[in-house]
Write a structure and sequence with these properties.
- This protein has about 400 residues and is an alpha+beta fold.
- It has 3 domains: about 90 residues, Rossmann fold (3-Layer(aba) Sandwich), CATH 3.40.50; about 60 residues, Dna Ligase, domain 1 (2-Layer Sandwich); about 200 residues, ATP-grasp fold, B domain (D-amino Acid Aminotransferase, Chain A, domain 1, 2-Layer Sandwich), CATH 3.30.470.20.
- Helix 3 runs antiparallel to helix 4.
- It starts with a strand and ends with a helix.
- Pfam families: ATP-grasp_4.
């Protein structure tokens, strides 16, 4: 049977993956006025707000149905996955265990995810759900070590605060904490390298697509500055990260679909940062495709159509992403892009913010640019150095 899949504002890599399967008919759900050239002749479904599940469901119902095709709404972002979950529930569409709303809400809430995992679970550190400064002060003074305060749901590195027991009250008094009323988590700070794990699940069975090493700016904001896929770690470390990820996914009730789990590795083993019922952003899914030969999305479509997890191929290829600060850039954006694309191994160079909007990088959404590269394991460090050197030359 054919599938008709409705996808809110899909990226090109998603459409490219879907085109590899003759049994998939893709309907992009987009706003009127969007550039249609990127959708390659597909017939979109127009809605004013692709993130309004009621509007999307009504628009789907008004569209002529294909009686020979099974329909499903798919999504690959934090908000869009919940929209797709609600649309599928409203229209009676389902895949086994895909985008369960309760599971997505468990992923969204950092404190709830930690509770279902188990307060005493070694993947957790001491934590507390908080909404007021006095609650934060009591927690930090009680544990007597550095702590991290952050929003209860996804923040894109916004409002992440590092706290010390002796100065916690002064630190909180000096910053805007009004966002805490919407829910926050404070937890013991974990020190160690950061990783994320991409997984594909079907009917409760989890297949690991790979482990990403994440480089950050460090405290206080821990903004991601680069990625390495697959992470250059020992087999023992990789196994520990993969086992931890599968335990977290099962505890959250994630049965089918792509997922992205972030962990910090300290001396005692992996510790949970957060997990999501969608693939990793920041071009991580692209890196999966460069290294494995098939993107995360293509692997998911394969599982959806065959009803089983596909085999994930190993390779000697490695990929990475560098997020570059363009402050003081003397070249034009076009010159910068051309220079980056001329470097061996570089497959994408993108400006994330126009020049007028570039300022201090204080969160993921304020990063200026990114460069994606791939090559052999031996070439990885050289390519990364060449990218950063070229960026400095243009300043």
């Amino acid at each position: 049977m054919r599938f008709t899949i409705y996808i809110p504002t899909p990226r090109g890599i998603v459409l490219e993956a879907a085109r590899r399967f003759g049994r998939l008919s893709v309907v992009p759900v987009i706003q009127p006025g969007q550039d249609l050239s990127e959708y390659g002749g597909l017939e979109p479904l127009f809605v004013q707000d692709p993130l309004d599940p009621v509007e999307v469901a009504r628009a789907v119902l008004a569209r002529d149905a294909d009686g020979d095709s099974r329909s499903i709404c798919l999504a690959f972002g934090d908000k869009s996955t919940e929209v797709a979950s609600l649309v599928n529930a409203a229209l009676g569409w389902d895949l086994p265990g895909y985008l369960d709303f309760v599971t997505l809400e468990t992923f969204r809430s950092k404190s709830k995810l930690r509770r279902v995992l188990g307060v005493g679970n070694p993947l957790n550190v001491p934590f507390a759900a908080v909404s007021r400064c006095d609650e934060v002060v009591r927690f930090v003074e009680k544990i007597g070590t550095q702590a991290i305060l952050k929003p209860a749901d996804g923040s894109g590195s916004r409002n992440i605060v590092t706290l010390d027991p002796g100065t916690v009250s002064a630190t909180l008094s000096a910053i805007d904490t009004s966002w805490m009323s919407q829910g926050a988590v404070v937890e013991q700070r974990v020190v160690g390298p950061e990783f994320s794990v991409e997984a594909l699940s079907w009917n409760g069975e989890h297949s690991i697509l790979g482990v990403t090493r994440k480089f950050t700016s460090g405290p206080p904001g821990f903004i991601e500055t680069g990625h390495e896929f697959p992470a250059d770690v020992s087999l023992e470390v990789r196994d520990a990260l993969e086992h931890a990820t599968k335990e977290i996914l099962s505890a959250a009730g994630h049965l089918s679909g792509l997922s992205h789990t972030e962990l910090i590795l300290d001396d005692a083993g992996p510790k949970l940062v957060e997990s999501h019922g969608r693939p990793g952003g920041d071009r991580i899914s692209d890196m999966v495709g460069l290294v494995r030969g098939r993107s995360s999305f293509e692997l998911w479509f394969d599982a959806m159509l065959t009803g089983r997890l596909p085999v994930v191929q190993e390779s000697g290829v490695t990929a990475g992403v560098e997020f570059l600060d363009l402050t003081g850039m003397k070249s034009t954006d076009e010159q910068w892009t051309d220079r980056m694309l001329s470097l061996p191994g570089v497959v994408e160079a993108s400006i994330l913010l126009p020049e007028a909007e570039r300022g201090e990088i204080v969160s993921s959404s304020t990063r200026h640019s990114l460069v994606v590269f791939c090559g052999s394991t031996d070439e990885r460090a050289r390519i990364r150095r060449a990218i950063n050197a070229a960026n400095l030359e243009l300043k």
